[in-house]
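pinging the channel bc i need a second pair of eyes. not urgent but kinda urgent?? the chain im working w is below, pasted from the shared doc
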Amino acid sequence: MSAADVIVVRMHNEGGPAGRGAELLPMLRQSLDQRWQKYAAELARCRRKCSEKSVHDLRVATRRLLATIDVILAVMPGDLIRNVERTLRKRMKAFGPLRDVQVQLLRIGKLRQDHPDLTPFYTVLLLREQHLMDLITRRLQRTMTTSMDEAVAACNERLEQFVHAEPMARVASTAAIGTAAAAFARAVVLRQAIVPGDSASIHHLRLAFKKYRYTIEVMQPALPFVTENVLKNMNAYQDRMGQIQDVEVLAGSLKQFSRRTRGKSGTRLAPVRQALEEEHRVLMTAFHKAADDLYGFWNSVQATMVAPPAA
């Protein structure tokens, strides 16, 4: 008997995810339906008004929908739902530059209260935001969801066909756990590849860990040891890395602006740039001290799989 078979048998005997395999497929159906509806609602809201909040909420809704689709593709591959995934990833990529500008605006909006020399830079960011929002708004108006809606409905129907098939339920549970394990393994590899002082290596880990975190969110109903507190700690771990990235992007943009303007403006902004560099250093140091917290985020999942056999 293979290690994977042992895990399936143990979970079945102990009422783990494989033992409750019949619950997994309905859970995925519900997750797909709810997250698709949420995505459609946020898309409509962003069409009406492309604000910082609506863009943020649409990005989050897209990531969560993609996480559900990733688990479904591991359980039940299919071209229709994969096409939806590809379309969503393209749309996510288009929002990247706008998100960066909006994060910088929020930060500079606060900093310029004490540093009025930041006002010209703030104005440039506002103009850039408006330009990107105009582009996104036009793109959203052309965005069609009919074919995607049909693909999601077809995927739900196919999942329904397997709900009462016990062998499929057990295989689906094992495949879903495998998806989470693969995502975590990828994060571990990138954690071990981090080079002190190299923020790019931390950024790579952040992207991998984000995928793992969203995957666990999808599967939480089947993972009783993954509590809300565990998810909160995962979010905090991810935020530490996100803060490093945000400060670095802002510092880079401000540096480019200073080079273009030259003269007194660049000199006056030097203290702000130095403060951002110091903040970046502090954030990097703090993260390196907490980087190994990553390894604990598999314990709650593993506890579900390999709990001691019942007496």
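so The domain at 3-305 is CATH 1.40.20.10 (CHAD domain). and The two ends are 21 Å apart (CA to CA). — does that match what u expected or am i reading it wrong
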